Amino acid sequence: MLKLISHKTAAMIAAVAVLSVAHAATVRADDTTGNSMQAQIDHGKSTYASKCSHCHGPNLMNSGTVTPDLRAIPDDKTRFVTTVKNGKNNKMPPWADILSDDEIGNLWAFVSSRRKP
């Protein structure tokens, strides 16, 4: 009986260990590929700081310029992506040749996470 219990215990410990390793690997993969929402927001924040903040301001607004308050933009990812890629009204330059689709998606995650309802 003691031998049977120890085999069950060992099997249970092994199963928990395998699941723990699998979970840790999944979390790590999400963080490095930007699949988790927080990772996307973090990457978007970095891209925003280096590529966008000089015109749109460090806090998504830049008073005294023609740039819109990005905290108040519509909840429309397609419109956002199109504007970033193609530019707007000859005032915002197109970024399609500079930013990847992933970077633009991460920017959307960051900007939309800071939107005012």
- Rounded radius of gyration (Å): 22 Å
**Helix segment tally:** 4
The helix fraction, in percent, is 55-70%
Structural class: mainly alpha
What share of the residues does DSSP label as strand, in percent? under 5%
Descriptive notes:
The chain has 117 residues and is mostly helical. The chain has 4 helices and no strands. The relative contact order is 0.13. Residues 25-30 have low confidence and may be disordered.
Describe this protein with a few key phrases.
elongated; mainly alpha; 4 helices; 117 residues
Short description:
By secondary structure, this protein is mainly alpha-helical.
Secondary structure topology:
Elements: H1 2-33, H2 37-56, H3 77-86, H4 101-113
Helix pairs in contact: 2-4
